[in-house]
Specification:
The protein is 79% helix and 0% strand. It has 570 residues and is mostly helical. Helix 1 runs antiparallel to helix 10, helix 5 runs antiparallel to helix 15 and helix 20 runs antiparallel to helix 21.
Length: 570
């Protein structure tokens, strides 16, 4: 322990430490509750708008930066935005270059909370709680309830700051504590403190908010507060790195870009914190009518918040033109390679951190259903290749694929059940039900392969059946149509594409007609007086019926996006 820390710890009698700790911890708890309530209400109010922004993030760097800013401001967490970005990179939706703008925007968005806190509206805290809670509890309509939650969140946030501020009052006159805080004026110490604290609590907003509160009590100077804010930018990288473990290399590169941007941003300003402090003073209101400690308390909170915003805005303007170079550096750090064997049965996109954000949780599920659909389509295709010509071992391998389908389906179902228990609107509730139904149809298609098509494969081996090449071609053509139907249905669900869902519905007459034509051609291929030929005909007839069942399941799955019966009755 350093001599200064030892001196602070050795003077318990001079300060009411229990009261100070209760004030700090209790205030921090209220602050976190307010931040959580605030972000929950913002996410609920944003809803579909946030999804639209996320889908546009890949258009160009500027749009990506604006998207990153808006989503982070709504989520109140650059960490969640970056974790989302890692998920998009895993799915191949966003590239390393495109992610640079989103990350820069997310860092700017993370400064919004500090700007709100710096208003120091503690006098209005109880009034906000008194108004917000009844609105949230008794308000008519989702907008009024979520609006009440928003006001309540602000109230708890400011109330927590007031409690922390009151708890820290005795430290103003405690010389060892003041000297300890003064030690944070050394930039490296302040940056390390901010980075470690943020990594532990996984929220740069809380770290900067605490720095603003301490500055309001005169315990932190502007340079020390700026150092802590800079360190908070580095601390947020820990979660992104953890989220990238086990993901594809493109996702790991996104996490590396986040770390690189944070560290380079801090290094750029390490020797210019004084300049940044002067810029913050220049753009912030001054309390010239006050002097000494009173002036510091009045000015430092707004100056720290503005310095935090200036730091991230200027860094974004500097780094955005070099997005390609930053992406190349990430490629150099994480080069292409074989990597490990992908576990097809484990979910890749079901991030539990998104459960409290219904719109984002739904997108996670849609991407995972895309993976499940790909797994099922591959299973059907593999079964069709070997059912007429494969060995017993190959047929058994196809049957084993159904275990992967069942495992991934179970993970999606659990995630949907968890998401449905969290606060959500009627629209999200309907979407949860629709996605559950879609996933169930995909699982049922897997069962058709396992219990139907592979059973036919074993029957063909047991009876030593053979088929004319022309007959196999007729069945293969029908399989191509069914596979197209299934692919369109999966795409309709994943992208909420009603056009694709209508196309699936329009294929119903063609599927029926082509199945009937295939059966007629099959009957022409075999002699009715040959028992072996009749068994082969029955085999291929059953195979076509299994494919028709798969097409029916696909059509029902597409109805979760668009119901042609409802439109006919409209």
């Amino acid at each position: 322990m350093s001599p200064l820390l030892a001196q602070v710890a050795s003077e318990p009698a001079s300060l009411p430490w229990p009261q100070i700790l209760m004030g700090l911890l209790g205030g921090l708890a209220l602050f976190l509750m307010g931040l959580d309530r605030l972000s929950t209400s913002l996410r609920a109010l944003a809803g579909e708008g946030m999804k639209i922004m996320l889908k546009r993030m890949t258009t160009n760097r500027i749009t990506g930066m604006v998207t990153g800013f808006c989503v982070t401001a709504l989520l109140q967490s650059s960490t969640i935005t970056t974790v989302l970005l890692v998920g998009f990179a895993s799915a191949g939706v966003v590239s390393s270059v495109q992610s640079v703008g989103v990350i820069m925007g997310a860092k700017i968005g993370s400064t919004v909370t500090a700007q709100i806190i710096a208003f120091q509206a503690t006098d209005l805290a109880l009034a906000m709680v008194a108004v917000g809670y009844p609105l949230m509890l008794l308000g008519r309509g989702e907008w009024m309830r979520h609006g009440g939650g928003l006001v309540l969140g602000f109230g708890l946030l400011f109330l927590g700051m007031a409690v922390m501020s009151t708890g820290m009052e005795p430290l103003r006159e405690h010389e060892p504590a003041l000297r300890l805080m003064a030690g944070l004026e050394w930039p490296v110490y302040a940056i390390i403190a901010g980075a470690v604290f943020t990594a532990l609590i996984q929220s740069s907003a809380v770290t900067v908010g605490l720095a603003v509160t301490m500055a309001a009590e005169g315990l932190l100077t502007l340079p020390a507060g700026i150092g802590i804010a800079l360190g908070a930018n580095i601390g947020t990288c820990v979660t992104a790195l953890l989220a990238s473990i086990g993901r594809p290399r493109e996702a790991v590169r996104v996490a590396v870009i986040h770390v690189f941007a944070a560290i380079m941003g801090v290094l750029l300003w390490l020797g210019f914190i004084g300049v940044l402090a002067d810029l913050a003073r220049w753009v912030s209101p001054s309390a010239v009518h006050l002097e000494g400690l009173d002036r510091l308390r009045a000015e430092a909170p707004r100056q720290i918040a503005n310095a935090h915003t200036l730091f991230n805005v200027i860094n974004a303007l500097i780094m955005l033109p070099f997005a390609g170079l930053i992406a190349r550096i990430a490629y150099w750090i994480v080069p292409e390679g074989r990597g490990g064997v992908e576990d097809e049965a484990s979910p890749h996109h079901l991030d539990r951190r998104m459960l409290n954000t219904p719109a984002l949780a739904l997108d996670c599920v849609r991407r995972e259903i895309g993976r499940l659909g790909g797994l099922v389509r591959a299973m059907v295709g593999q079964a069709m290749r070997i059912v007429s010509t494969g060995t017993g071992a190959q047929v058994q391998q196809v049957r084993a694929q159904d275990e992967k389908v069942d495992k991934l389906h179970a993970a999606i179902e659990r995630y949907l059940n968890d998401a449905a228990t969290r606060p959500h609107g009627d629209r999200e509730g309907g979407a949860f039900q629709g996605l559950t139904t879609a996933a169930n149809y995909l699982e049922q298609i897997g069962d058709v392969v396992e219990t139907g098509i592979t059973t036919l494969g074993h029957r063909r081996l047991a009876n030593n059946l053979t088929f004319p090449e022309s007959a196999r071609r007729d069945v293969a053509r029908f399989h191509e149509l069914v596979d197209r139907t299934l692919a369109l249905a999966v795409e309709a669900v994943v992208n909420e594409d009603q056009g694709k869902a209508r196309e699936v519905a329009s294929l119903k007459p063609r599927i029926r007609r082509q199945a009937e034509e295939a059966l007629e051609k099959l009957q022409a291929h075999y002699r009715s007086d040959d028992a072996h030929a009749m068994e082969a005909l029955t085999f291929q007839t059953d195979l076509i019926e299994n494919l028709r069942t798969i097409a029916t399941h696909a059509r029902h799955m597409a109805r979760t996006v668009y119901d042609e019966r409802a439109e006919r009755n409209a």
